[in-house]
From TrEMBL, chains A, B:
Cofactor annotation: FAD
Protein name according to UniProt: FAD-dependent pyridine nucleotide-disulphide oxidoreductase
Alphabetically ordered keywords of this record: FAD, Flavoprotein, Oxidoreductase, Redox-active center
UniProt record similarity statement: Belongs to the class-III pyridine nucleotide-disulfide oxidoreductase family.
Natural source organism: Acholeplasma oculi
Domain Rhodanese: start-end pairs: 464-551
InterPro entries reported for this sequence: FAD-bd_OxRdtase (IPR050260), FAD/NAD-bd_sf (IPR036188), FAD/NAD-binding_dom (IPR023753), FAD/NAD-linked_Rdtase_dimer_sf (IPR016156), Pyr_nucl-diS_OxRdtase_dimer (IPR004099), Rhodanese-like_dom (IPR001763), Rhodanese-like_dom_sf (IPR036873)
Lineage per the UniProt record: Bacteria, Bacillati, Mycoplasmatota, Mollicutes, Acholeplasmatales
Top-rank lineage group of the source organism: Bacteria
Signal peptide (UniProt feature, chain positions): none
One Gene Ontology term of the molecular function aspect: oxidoreductase activity
Pfam families documented for this protein: Pyr_redox_2 (PF07992), Pyr_redox_dim (PF02852), Rhodanese (PF00581)
Length: 551, 551
């Protein structure tokens, strides 16, 4: 591919980091002679925003290592004109010019094409007395510097975090690792509210087990110096506050010139990342994208999509046949020694009755090889098309791998039964001959064909009320050790062939074990013996924690 | 799904472990009342064959843990009639009966359907003097017991392994970890000969670095007590020998009744796993499968496909609409702290000129987060369809994840450019915002569109002879530290804008750096300046080791 410009173009990029720098680097490779100017209002045009929380604990020791690429290198290697500490303050789309402020002075710069990569900014709520406590957000290096300085100068014993999303949890872990006590306050009933509750409850428990005070279903209603007053009536004595309740697209520049904005002020762009205004394009956290599964508008403020969008826009502006296909949203967060990950849609985002759910519990690698740990996997698929809609997983190891595989399967529009056919690297240190992702395919096939009929953890109370008899087919030791569903009858799976006639013939049954495998065997047997029987999906391992939480 | 038999059927399974036991368990779940009889000539019907080498070092401490499911449990929980130490010696397909030997006596058993899951047996070559040394193979628990007993009774200081495939390498590592010196002898020029040489050379180096004596391009021509005489003229003093040169389908039973056999004596089955003889089916290592990419016959003696096949045959014999779609072959092996993995086809299996190759080097996770290690990834895609044909990778961490993702992409028939769109779990401990799999998509797009034109490590000598000028764009420190391609000109990428006019205008160029990224920038720049220029794919990181090997 070789492209000949009639004249040298000037490309102006507003905002560096993921979207802006990906654009600039790619555009340079495709257009050696054009002028590329990157304006960044902060001091750093390229830094590792996802690494910021880890510098607080010292896990990432050097602040310097968070500065991904130095300006000098960008200039020398990519011939980019990088202007940090230069805030673009207005756009004149008719004259194709922008105004920017640098060193207190106002300058102008004309453009042929303008790329908006302004990202998103932390939301700060209105709280009575917020001015009475030091409070911070964490989005960039200056934010980090302020927090580090506060810690250095004031040696806080206790810090509170408002908002238990990804950043909030990473902050909690890293503050705690630094020896600071942490309170985590969240409005929703769950930490990680983007996940489904039977998954996120385990993140909450991991936080609590690691000494974080978690206040869900809560809000800060008033602040006095060193005291937060919560909606629940509780008081939290604290030294300072970090607010991490989410981000909002930073789109003032475009709003001021009447560009089309959508949900939460996000920028509406077409397939070519073009805004409603000619010669102005946008990428990154500030734009609205299509969720590829639901086909609905969404904001996905994550680094990977921003990188891809920046590169694609460079391709588009260089005349390549590329377009914005949207995103499915894949994410992960480390919570001490656990990982929580998600791809695609959750049950929260779906309409009951349109999908099936599978919960699985298996080891990350062969159980007989040392160091095996549990993976909990939830997969959701469409009742009609059988396409995979989403998956969530948690565990100590191998969580990222399984979600990445399923994310790939979703992107490729595979069905749940296609997961049976996938062939993974198998040796005892890495996985099992039947990996948990294969098992999801097997269970999916059983559900589709009616070989197994499952009910979910949230159906349990209703079914008990309707008179269903629950049968626990675990061993006596497991039942006593882990606890059980109240009112359930106990028949060890290995005694079922002998004892099934003890089960009342007139009862509808729900069988359960610890993970759902033995109860599936029991289900098959009891159905063959003429019972109406359902398998409790995920069984006691799913029911256990969440049932205690909702009580 | 409910299926009503007119009469109770008798299903006879010959051979347990992966294929046979998967079949039996699944068939039982679908058919509660049929009789299922599993004959196993050895003492154990279900054991972890992939775990055997790890018991030698004590990495897997307990022999007991290698016995996956006990017979008693199979009887109680699945109502399986398991007959271990019972060797089936003949089949009478007309009368639908088999003969078997148990406790020195011969018995008969009739069947309605017969499932052959006899697997494969280790190949033992003819070597002069093989009777003069204790030698072993490793395929099952009795084999392992013999090796363990030999070690216990004779305290060997040195063991030799013939055959450097997966088992050979696992044996070498585990014997070494036990404190025994190891010689590894391989006929091919590479260890792990199923991989391409620029990948497997790193396995060889890992073995050597860990103290294994590796003899490639070699054979044992004669054996005296405690001495192996090699083709190379070298002599290896050793205490005993383990032979791991591969396996052959164990298909005598079917051969004797004239069933259709194919390559290497493997069983020919149809889409329903049916052999050429009515009511006789086969699964596992003994059958020939279609490679789903090349559509050619192949033998894939791996646990995962065997498990899947067993389950699918149970579905088929239960009337479900399932069929054998073939396999692509995905595998991994641990070599001390390194992992080597592969999926799909290698260059060795392909016809030059029909495909493109990409070599990449990137970190398993964000470089600024502690503990990042390198992943080397090779991806091969079709020149016309752009479909991914295969991938190989090695490194310390995250190798299994990347190959599993690409294996999923191959199964879903994704093209190389589709890899750009995949959305992975990203946080600094897990991956990079642009994961190496995404990068493969980016590079693939560049190659397809001609944005980058690459040459391979095996082209270097030819291109040098044809007068191409090689330009090394790394830093001076890298060039001196890592070495360089002889005769190459050195211009640091960061000086290229200033110094490119030093390059002779009449020369065709090949640019290289350490991994191929900076040289790609140089390629784009130099092409824009009018040079005919190619990028050395994978650059010095690929060229380095293999060029020393082939000299």
């Amino acid at each position: 591919m070789r492209r000949i410009h009639m004249k040298k173009k000037t490309i102006v990029v507003v905002g560096g980091v993921a979207g802006g720098m990906s654009f600039a680097n790619r555009y340079r490779r495709l257009n050696i002679d054009d002028e590329i100017i990157v304006f960044e209002k902060g001091p750093f045009v390229s830094f590792a925003n996802c690494g910021l929380p880890y510098h607080i604990s010292g896990e990432i020791k050097s602040r310097q290592s968070l500065l991904v690429v130095k300006e000098e290198l960008l200039q020398k290697r990519f011939n980019l004109n990088v202007r940090s500490n230069s805030e673009v303050i207005s756009i004149n789309p008719e004259q194709k010019k922008i105004q920017y402020r640098s060193n207190q002075e106002i300058f102008e710069q004309s453009y042929d094409e303008l790329v908006i990569s302004t990202g998103a900014k932390p939301i700060v709520p209105t709280i009575e007395g917020l001015d009475r406590i030091p409070f911070f957000t964490l989005r960039n290096i200056p934010d980090l510097d302020k927090i580090m300085l506060q810690i250095k100068n004031h040696h806080p014993k206790h810090v509170s975090i408002l908002g238990a999303g990804f950043i909030g949890l990473e902050l909690a872990e890293n503050l705690k690792m630094r020896g600071i006590e942490v309170a985590l306050i969240e409005k929703s009933s769950d930490v990680l509210p983007v996940l489904d509750p039977e998954v996120s409850i385990h993140a909450k428990n991991a936080l609590i087990q690691n000494g974080i005070d978690v206040y869900t279903n809560n809000e800060i209603v008033k602040i006095d110096p060193n005291t937060l007053y919560l909606k629940s009536g509780q008081e939290v004595k604290t030294d300072f506050l970090i607010i991490s309740i989410g981000v909002a697209p930073d789109t003032t520049l475009l709003k001021n010139i009447g560009a089309n904005l959508g949900m939460k002020g996000g920028i509406i762009v077409d397939h070519n990342y073009q805004t409603s205004i000619p010669h102005i394009y946008a990428v990154g956290d500030a734009i609205i994208v299509k969720n590829q599964i639901s086909n609905q508008d969404t904001l996905i403020p994550l680094a990977s999509p921003a990188n891809r969008q920046g590169r694609q826009l460079a391709d588009i502006l260089s005349g390549l046949n590329v377009y914005n296909k949207g995103s499915i949203g894949t994410s992960i967060v480390k919570v001490f020694d656990m990982s929580f990950a998600s791809t695609g849609l959750t049950e929260k985002q779906l309409t009951k009755g349109t999908y099936h759910v599978i919960h699985l519990l298996a080891n990350d690698h062969a159980s007989y090889y040392p160091g095996a740990t549990s993976i909990h996997l939830k997969v959701i698929f469409d009742k009609m098309s059988h396409q995979i809609l989403g998956a969530q997983a948690f565990g100590q190891k191998g969580v990222d791998k399984r979600i990445d595989i399923i994310s790939t399967a979703i992107k490729a529009k595979l069905t749940i039964t296609d997961l049976q056919e996938l062939e993974f690297t198998y040796a005892p240190p890495y996985s099992s001959a039947k990996d948990i992702v294969n098992l999801a395919g097997y269970v999916g096939q059983n559900i589709i064909l009616g070989i197994s009929q499952s009910v979910q953890w949230y159906d349990v109370e209703m079914l008990k009320n309707e008179g269903y008899l629950f049968i626990d087919v675990r061993s006596f030791i497991e039942r006593e050790g882990f606890g059980y569903i109240e009112g359930s009858m106990h028949i060890d799976i290995d005694e079922l062939y002998l004892r099934y006639q003890e089960i009342p013939k007139d009862k509808k049954l729900v069988v359960y074990c610890q993970s759902g495998t033995r109860s599936y065997n029991a289900e098959r047997f009891l159905r063959a013996k003429g019972f109406e029987v359902y398998n409790l999906d995920g069984s006691y391992s799913v029911y256990d924690q969440i049932s205690k939480e909702i009580k």
